[in-house]
């Protein structure tokens, strides 16, 4: 693959344009101010919602997808135009079929041929129109699904970090399930809705009108069962909606479980936990089995109820029909036309029943998808933010205190610290001391509960998030590589503009990655999708360093890996880090002796408090907590990681 000609390749999905529909959705009910198709559709749906509330049937999800449906209105209207043609052909077909049977009984071959030709033409028109109706309405439904997915995913990406890390957030597998299977269910629901709203309804009205013109008495007798059937189906539908929601939650549970366990197979096997995981999976699968059994039973029951109503209708029709014919007001041809109309009336009723099933099953999917979009972000970008274009790297923490949502204890308490541009600060301290949290605050993944953080004198809450995160680069302990080429992985975060291959190569050289990258089958253009796991820990770390070099940030956060590398790999990573640190303000969550000794300043964090601060030598001379931790380290001859004692 040629990167220059197609610089975004696999990553282009990140740049998907997200539509004009990201506006707040208006749920209020208002009469139409004008009679354009969109206002009529809006009014129709609001009225349905209002009617549902009045009847005590609760809310429906229709208003949520209204804006998406309106965006597809041209396609929908074309589909419905085909419906008008199909229903018109059917309306004309009914009397023709009665006359055809009459001519057959009379043996008038000449007129019979003409009539049969007309009937066949009407059937052909209806078939073609129905095909296009289906094709166009499906296209609209699938477009809506596609746009809805983009809309919801945009909201997921914009959620606070707290949602992904803290309590109460959805598991990754659950979110994935909502955006895949449930978004697809939404497409089916939308199609069912579009199909019910006009095509089935039009056919029902046309056939009912035809039946009334043929015999008002028979029509009244036949149609009288419809209200009873509607009430029964509405009640069963509500039950189905509840059961469908349970079913969807249970599948999402399985998806979340698999997303967690399958990528951690190493740990499962290393702990011989296969049997334990099998039991956990079976419990979830059994819950899903029970949830779906209820739903399937309800789905099986609804058509049977409808069939029972049909049987009652047929008996009424048979009885009243016999009486009407015996009165001489109705002939055989009329009866053929009437029964044909009835059969064609039943067809949309069945379609509406099926669509109702789809709607009831799909509503929880729509609700669960939209649940992902309803939140008020805490990390907000204010109006008129400062764009950090060039930054010297002066960082100041002013009385910063922070605790995570739902926690009573402070993770960081009253931290004040000034780091001058170009300084390297080592953050050390026992596990849980708040080092990583401090790094998250610098990146503004969370905002301090009290106090503020300034970069070059600008409160970071006043800066644009994009420019802040452009100026603060992080090399995490665990390197995450994405599907995409090596070059795309190095340029990750800057994929909105053309990849600069010269810069990629420079970053690879400085991070000591070039040598192993050039040995890959396609060098920088090798796709890492299935190869990332075959890279060694050191190689992955060097790619993360290359990524940070490419970013050209002024402030760096290095979370040193705790896992030991072999001597050569360690040397290459250390050299790469030294290249990276030149000319930057650096915060190192330090686990290694060399890093701590070389830092301009050492900050000891314990229990969220800044306990000690100074150079290695000054802190040793002070003889405080750092000195005692250090001497423990020194006495541990074999200890290769400072982490064992300092953090
Ligand atoms: N997302 C979170 N939600 C709630 N509590 C959290 C969250 N992340 C961290 N904590 C808690 O905050 C405290 C500080 O965690 P932090 O990761 O900042 O410590 P650390 O000094 O980096 O530890 P380590 O050296 O082990 O990485 C810990 O008690 C931790 O349990």
**Strand tally:** 10
Question: How many whole angstroms does the radius of gyration measure?
Answer: 34 Å
| Uncertain parts | 1-35, 51-59, 637-641
Strand content: 5-15%
What is the CA-CA span between the terminal residues? 44 Å
Mean pLDDT: 80
Structural class: alpha/beta
* Order of strands, widest sheet: 6-7-8-3-9-10
Please describe the biggest sheet, giving its number of strands, its sense, and whether it closes into a barrel. 6 strands, mixed
Bound ligands, each once: adenosine-5'-triphosphate
Quick structural summary:
The protein has 647 residues and is an alpha/beta fold.
What are the defining features of this structure?
elongated, 6-stranded mixed sheet, alpha/beta, disordered N terminus, binds adenosine-5'-triphosphate, 4-stranded antiparallel sheet, 22 helices, 647 residues
